[in-house]
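Running this now, will post back.
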Amino acid sequence: MKIQSSVLVHLGFGKYVRSDQVTAVIPIEEERGPGRRTFVNIQGQSDPIVASRAEDTIVRDLVQEPREVTQARQQQEILQDLLVDLSNVNSTVRRISRDEGGLDLERLERRIRQVLEN
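Update: finished.
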């Protein structure tokens, strides 16, 4: 992926930066919320700008990555998170989900692993 040259990238709340001056895009992990999604480092500035847009949207605008590529990456991340969460479900809850709710968590885990392997 190549960063577009001299394109204004919207950071949210009326903030814009030139694409070729961005040196880093870092998701905010602590105290993240509305108006505080991403740190954007700019060439020549010591402190990052706080952006209200998510890091993947900013990166997509920086490089004009096709929306399909961004969505596929997000879907992979969601499936990986779901697989981790499913691995923490105990056998009693799995049995109840299968027998009473018709939700077979083992089958779901296998299908997610197959998708992630391809």
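Residues 8-63 form one domain. More later if anyone needs it.
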